[in-house]
């Protein structure tokens, strides 16, 4: 974080011209007022120097995080039923035990999953919870093994592919522009709000806002490219 130095209004104009910073990334910003009694008659407004480059740096960090989370969400969604973590949020039995406390899931090739139950007495409950999850998956006991279940994955159909693409688009819109704090639109809006509080008529602030808009447009394009690649892989 760049350091900021507080100055009084009187010191700003002695030996310095306010406009000297219009061609740099440094501008004057009125410091937030502090409550309390004024001492020694010092009631002058406080100002501080702000380096505007920090806003572009913050935007870049925020936009990078948006891309990363977007890509992760697309991959998880695209893997669908072949994702070994698909049952992790299931509740098992009357007491609502966590699936992950009772069993673990792994992939077997591209067309099946294997569930390993830690205690054989929980196998029946595990089967019931999977069948009741609405995933259209039917676990089968592996012969001579009371602790393992094999689940054959149904091949994708035209309809399931279309539904998947629809969900991918929803994820794209969430990270493009939504109330999600990690969406590109939200990150941009929060930084714009701060910049306009400084002095939106200042030439340096205008330049940084233009740079922010260009950066946002660039990352929106990258987000869309990621979505298009995911969509293409689903459609085949």
Automatic annotation (TrEMBL):
Q: Could you tell me which Pfam families the record lists for this protein?
A: RRF
One Gene Ontology term, aspect cellular component? mitochondrion
Record-linked InterPro entries: Ribosome_recyc_fac, Ribosome_recyc_fac_dom, RRF_sf
Q: Which residues form a coiled coil?
A: none
Provide a Gene Ontology MF annotation, just one.
ribosomal large subunit binding
SUPFAM superfamilies reported for this sequence? Ribosome recycling factor, RRF
Q: What name does this protein carry?
A: Ribosome-recycling factor, mitochondrial
Family to which the UniProt record says this protein belongs: Belongs to the RRF family.
Native source organism of the sequence: Lachancea dasiensis
Lineage, top-rank taxon, reads Eukaryota
User: Which key words are in the record?
Assistant: Protein biosynthesis
């Amino acid at each position: 974080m760049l350091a900021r130095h507080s100055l009084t209004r009187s010191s700003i104009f002695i030996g310095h011209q306010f406009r000297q910073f219009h061609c740099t990334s440094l501008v004057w910003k009125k410091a937030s007022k502090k409550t309390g009694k004024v001492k020694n008659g010092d009631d002058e407004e406080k100002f501080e120097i702000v380096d505007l480059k920090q806003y572009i740096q913050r935007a870049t960090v925020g936009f990078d995080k948006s891309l990363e989370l977007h890509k992760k969400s697309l991959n998880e969604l695209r893997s669908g039923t072949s994702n070994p973590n698909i049952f992790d949020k299931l509740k098992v039995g009357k007491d609502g035990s966590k699936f992950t406390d009772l069993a673990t899931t792994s992939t077997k090739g591209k067309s099946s999953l294997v569930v390993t139950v830690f205690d054989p007495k929980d196998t029946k409950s595990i089967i019931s919870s999977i069948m009741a999850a609405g995933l259209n998956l039917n676990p089968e006991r592996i012969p001579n093994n009371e602790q393992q279940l094999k689940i054959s994955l149904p091949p994708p159909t035209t309809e399931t592919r279309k539904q998947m693409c629809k969900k991918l688009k929803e994820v794209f819109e969430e990270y493009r522009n939504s109330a999600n704090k990690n969406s590109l639109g939200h990150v941009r809006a929060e930084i714009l709000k701060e910049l306009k509080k400084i002095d939106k008529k200042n030439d340096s602030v205008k330049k940084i806002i233009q740079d922010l808009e260009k950066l946002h447009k660039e990352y929106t394009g990258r987000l869309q490219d990621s979505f298009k690649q995911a969509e293409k892989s689903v459609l085949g």
